[in-house]
Amino acid sequence: MTAFQSRGWLIAAALIAVSALFPLGDGTDAISIQMVSSVYIVAVLYLGASLHGNRYGGWLFSLLPLSFAAVVTLTIIVHSPGVAGVANWGLWLKAIGLWLAAWMLVDMIANAGDGRRTSRWRNLAPMILFGATLLLLWEWLVVGFGISPIILLPPSAIGQAVVAQVNTLATDFVWTFLHEVLLGWLIGCGSGFLVALVADRIPFLRRGLLPLGNVVSALPIVGIAPIMIWWFTYDWPSKTAVVVAMTFFPMLVNTVAGLAASGALERDLMRSYGASYWPTLVNLRLPAAMPFIFNGLKINSTLAMIGAIVAEYFDGPTIGMGFRINTQAALSQTDIVWAEIAVAMVAGSLFYGLIALVERAVTFWHPSYRRA
Question: pTM (2 decimals)?
Answer without folding.
Answer: 0.79
